[in-house]
Amino acid sequence: MPYTPESVWELSITPNVTNGVGAVEELGAIGGEFGAESALVVTDAGLAEAGVVDDVTATLDPIEYTVFDGVEPDPDVGIFEAAIEEAGAVDPDLIVGVGGGSSMDVAKTTSVVAEHGGDVLDYVAEPTGEGVPVPGPGIPTIAVPTTAGTGAETSPVTVISLPEEDLKVGISSRYQRPDAAVLDPALSVSLPPGPTASSGIDALSHAVEAYVTRPYDAKPSPERRADRPDYNGRSPVTDLFARSAIERIGDNLRTVVDNGQNLDARRNMLLGSFMAGAAFTNAGLGATHAIAMAAGAIHHTPHGVTIAHALPAVIRYNATSAYDRYAEIAELLGENTTGLSRDESAEAAARAVEKLTEDVGLGGGLSSLGVEESDVPHLAERANQLERLLAGNPRRIDRDELEAIIRDAL
After folding, report:
1. Is the omega angle on the peptide bond into residue 5 within 30 degrees of 0, that is, cis?
2. Is-contact 398 324, C-beta < 8 A?
3. pLDDT confidence of residue 165
4. What percent of the chain has pLDDT over 90?
5. Which residues of 368-384 are buried (b: 16+ CB within 10 A; e: fewer)?
């Protein structure tokens, strides 16, 4: 059968987004719109100890609530199971995820597994899991991010660590996309400079990779609507989200790292993170995230910091297939590309990212995270297996080329 290109694109985002200083005060009202009388709040112990969770739960009245604060960074399957067990015990009719991507991920998967039953790994793709599709909507879920980075508040994907197997796996389903998101910059003020910087660079990479990923009409047309992948290629709308996100993050990340109490900059970062999330969860990602996922699974490197080290090397590799897009990215990050050649314009984008990461304290390379030359082949092999991420990379890539990129990022 001859190749038939895709001619249709879809856009899926969280259906209700409440944004602004004081937005969290409306959390109880939003929960009430779902008819909620009881809620399970999924978060981490650090936010509970810092009083952030108290600030959030105070707005839930008259909804009764139970707090599960057992989430840890890169949560493993046991943490997901513990949250699901808690949901089974309290039988909530609302789930509220408060925190970074890990807490929101645990909340989203708790929503569907508590509703439909089974084990977490049942819904993970084969061969690691059973590949069972999520059958329908879960318990209504509200995401309340306290970091500007992951975009989990509008993502249908959750990431699960399997440390004994050096793996990170995921569950992807439209039914995991939160029903509402509350973006209140005041909740991110207490985030220290380091996590602020790394999460911000993660958000930037989401927007950059979404902006250069393959367009929807350069992918094969599915036989059925249900076969269209979540990452269905960039479209005019994902481009709008990505451009705005790149500019907002480039203009504000330095400020929030240096002065975390600047609410205007925090607001722009939260909005930029959401826009980047909306862009990449529809358009797709690329080699930067494949490398970061592999490094995180094998070496347990911090995701945002790994991204910071890998992104410039990936830009340099991909440049020949996306010169014009990288030139635009350079301009959005404040570089003047007037009179520059195609190569120079793309290099300006890589340098702009490097300068931003250095300015927010994330300079260095993968070697600073403990990755050594001898690790490169294994990392490249693992990254090469992440076909879902690499499918959208603008330039054809294989294991040998991934090795070269990782060496460049050391």
Report:
1. no
2. no
3. 81
4. 91
5. ebebeeebbeebbebbb
Topology given in CATH for the domain delimited by 23-183: Rossmann fold (3.40.50)
Percent of the chain with pLDDT strictly greater than 70: 100
Q: Furthest-apart CA pair in the chain: how many Å?
A: 65
- Measured CA to CA in angstroms, residue 183 lies from 129, 153, 239 at distances of 33, 9, 22
Asked whether 302 and 194 are in contact (CB, 8 A), the reply is no
Q: Where are the domains of the chain?
A: 23-183, 193-409
Instruction: Name the strand (E) or helix (H) holding 161.
Output: strand 157-162
CB within 8 A of 72, min separation 6: which ones? Answer: 44, 79, 102
Supply the pLDDT for residue 157.
93
Reported as a single tens digit per residue, the pLDDT across 254-266 is 999 999 999 999 9
What is the C-alpha to C-alpha distance for residues 17 and 34, in angstroms, rounded to an integer? 15
The single-letter DSSP state of residue 37 is S
CA distances from 220 to 5, 10, 235, 391 (A): 5, 14, 15, 12
Q: Which residues pair with 157 in a beta bridge?
A: 172
**Three-point CA angle 27, 102, 68, nearest 5°:** 60
pLDDT of residue 163: 83
Using the predicted structure, report yes or no on whether residue 1 has a pLDDT greater than 70: no
User: Under CATH, domain 193-409 is a member of which superfamily?
Assistant: Dehydroquinate synthase-like - alpha domain (1.20.1090.10)
The pair phi, psi for residue 93, each rounded to 5°, is -110, 15
Identity of the highest mean pLDDT range in 123-127, 272-276, 300-304:
272-276
The structure tokens 């980047």 sit at 276
17-57 pLDDT per residue, tens: 999 999 999 999 999 999 999 999 999 999 999 999 999 99
List the alpha helices (DSSP H) in 158-262: 193-212, 236-258
Q: At 2, is the pLDDT very low, low, confident or very high (cuts 50, 70, 90)? A: confident
| Separation CA 331–CA 36 (nearest Å) | 46
